[in-house]
Here is the input.
Amino acid sequence: MALAARPGTGDSGLSRWANAHRKWLFAAPAMIFVAALIIVPLAWTIYLSLTDSQGSVRAEAEFIGIGNYTSILTDTTRFWPAVWRTFAFTGVTLTAELILGMGIALLLWRPFKGERFVRVAVLLPLVATPVAVGMMWRLIFDPNIGFANSVLGAVGIPPQPWLAGESTALPTTMLIDIWQWTPMVVLILLAGLTSLSEEPQEAAKIDGANAWQRFRHVTLPLLMPTVIVAVLLRGIDALKTFDILYATKGKGGGSFHEVETLNVYAYGLSFDYNEYAKSSAVLMVFFLIIIGAMWVLTRRRDEV
Amino acid sequence: MGKRGYRLFRVGALVIVVATLLGPLVWMVMASLKTNVDIYDNAKTFAFTPTLENYTNVLQQANYTAFIWNSFLVAAVSTVASLVLGVPAAYAMARFAMKREALVVLMARVIPGVSLLVPWYYVFSNLRMVNTYGVLILAHMFVALPLIVYIMMGYFESMPLELEESGLVDGLTHIGAFWHITLPLARAGMATASILAFIFSWNNFMFALVLSGQRTKTLPVAIFDFVGYASIDWGGLMAAATIVTLPIMLIALFTQKYIVSGLTAGATKG
Here is the structure.
């Protein structure tokens, strides 16, 4: 047979062994790689969070139990404000991105002229490098030379400090996040909309439902699983936002920590102040928050 | 609102959406073509004489050609290495329904990067690997691999088994059928996964911020060279930002279909 000469038809002992064990032969390398880079560091982080390690990770660290956890959980100057900012950032951006994303996805749903161009416009912000996006908005939001204040001036609104203001910085970073990531929600929801069957729509039309009723009672319920995927994907990334915050406000979330979220706080503790033990405790709490949010959402997803 | 009314509303709304999404990018490119004097001059917002001065500055004095190479090298090698590890793994996980094992790999997407960086930094500095390409490639593989496994798992799950089975009947081994039949059919999926992995690696900031050095730093880290404590070289900064984002946007323009299918993978199945 000609086939016997071709590779992939081998009958040697090695080939037989490899084929019999192909499940793990294929899966193990990737799993070992990820596990090695996660499990050891995670175990180490848990250990560090129970010690007084600081200054240098090499230095002797003493085991102090849950001391770091009680100290951060009672810290109302840095820790709790960071928790609050993390949730505010995630809540506001996620809500805005879902509402805007749904609106834009519905606009794009039915074919129209120039569709290709609009789709490219939707794609560009979300592939752009987040750090560069942060820098770009720094110029646009610059209080003196930025375009944002020129626009406000044109409609008679006084100039705003945007990123430079203590109370306006966080909302401004939210705007940047919404600009960059609404397109992601649009793409996901649009994929969901395109996969819906036309029949329920037509049936509702015949029953005399108007556009809003059709959306509220037909499209939205059918789209719910996709909406939850979008919330899950965006939510995890919003909780962990780092790049645009660091690019726009620098270390510590600005001089008044005005955009310091848990991720930015933990980064600063580790790499600016070498407070490894405290940082590890913050990270463990942060990790639990993310896992908790995911757990709630995947359960919701299984329900709908 | 009649049909005509909705059509008008739709056109208006789409124009606003496109202007909001593209406007800032256009603004960035425009500023990168202005001198710093023109950037500060309100009269020259739109009417200015374009100059490439910022770009020559960035590429020559700021040594950006080296950083472009760093970014490209790290993204390309980590993408290829992740494909080698990730595609067979995704195949096994899809064919043998290894749900829990897949979850281990996907954990990498969920865990906050900072919690890994302290131990990584410690281990890799003991191995004298900090500031090398090696450590950056490993860290970026950590970003690329879960993405590739996730996309390819969905792809393999949707592929019919019949062709592979006919290969077995023809005398191929299981691995032979994977190599000669399944892989060639999965080319579009692999293209999608590689493009996204490359983009995610190119855009990654935090890992390189900690693990790279002056010699190996990637573009997102190098951008900060233009932000001083006292003043910002806006023209240079915008040219640098354009240089980082332009290649990615060009890739996105030409591979739009793949990127969208990759980003929305798993969005529509129950």
User: Anything to note?
Assistant: The mean pLDDT of chain B is 90.
